[in-house]
Amino acid sequence: METSAQVRPERLYKPQMWGMRRGFKLFMHLVSNYKVIGQSNIPKPPFLLTFNHMSFCDAPAIAGAVDYVTPGFGAKKYKGKLKGMLFYLGSPVWIDQDAPDRRALMTALKIIERGDLFAIAPEGHRSKGSLTQGQEGVAFIATRANVPILPLTITGTEKIFKQRRPEVRVTIGKPYHLPEGRAKGEQLREYTERVMCALAALLPESYRGVYAGHPLIPEMAAIVT
Length: 225
Prior knowledge:
By secondary structure, the protein is an alpha/beta fold. It is built from seven helices and seven strands.
């Protein structure tokens, strides 16, 4: 299977076929009580989609909510494995989770620069519940691409196949921008905190994890809700 870096933009980055989206939605409705909130907030590409990551079922949950093919990072350790097949819902850019992977970051940036969207889970790993510390790769991409950031949160996917049709909610906030200019050093950390607090603002308190009570949450809530 071709990766996003190998496929021509006109072939890969276009609205998903109606039948594919219907299939993703059908799967989510079969395994959960699935609801999407805020679809009208989705802009036209290019934009950077950020989301909290809890389960392998996040991929079909997002695919059923967004009208566009959604390329994003996939952990190299899952490439060629059964679980890794879910990443192909959005055409993956394989990334090394255990070390800084500048090549993967630059590939994501090139995809956005073509005029397409790219999805990133700033935590870098599945949290299996509440938010964990965000990684600075999201701010690196966002401040170099200078495109809207679309916050999307998911709750309940961590319960799929553990409970009978758990409640799953995909909440899409309003897009926002980080300050222009290529962030470096301490700015990367500061901007990453803003991205994470935008997600926390859309999540119930029990899902906010390490960001619970963060002073930036009210400020970001006023922007994205």
